[in-house]
Design a protein that fits this description.
The chain is of the alpha+beta class. It has one domain: 2-Layer Sandwich (NE0471 N-terminal domain-like), CATH 3.30.2020.40. It contains four helices and six strands; from the N terminus they run βββααβββαα. A hairpin with a 4-residue loop joins β5 and β6. It is globular and about 30 Å long.
Length: about 90
């Protein structure tokens, strides 16, 4: 069953990092953010490395070349993360 208005293959038109947060803007105008601590490689990355996020696969994925890390936009939108939210952020 398809839900009206829900994009099955979400794509990003831009991505950026601010501090320890990563943000994406989707083709439908929504902006989604997540803490870098939710992914193993990003959790240990420097702030300087985090801001080097790029879009790839026509906006279907995020790429950090220096970290050799790729994350799908669909996974982010669906809330599929590698690590739980750190307790300090959950409060």
């Amino acid at each position: 069953m398809n839900t009206p208005g829900v994009e099955l293959d979400p794509r990003a038109v831009r991505a950026w990092g601010v501090g320890r947060m990563i943000f994406i803007e989707l083709t439908d105008g929504r902006q989604v953010g997540f803490p870098a601590a939710r992914f193993r490689l990003l959790a240990d990355a420097s702030d300087a490395d985090l801001v080097k996020v790029e879009l790839c696969l026509n906006g279907a994925a995020l790429r950090w070349e220096d970290l050799d890390e790729d994350i799908t936009v669909r996974g982010v939108v669906e809330g599929r993360f590698q690590l739980p939210l750190p307790l300090a952020m959950a409060a």
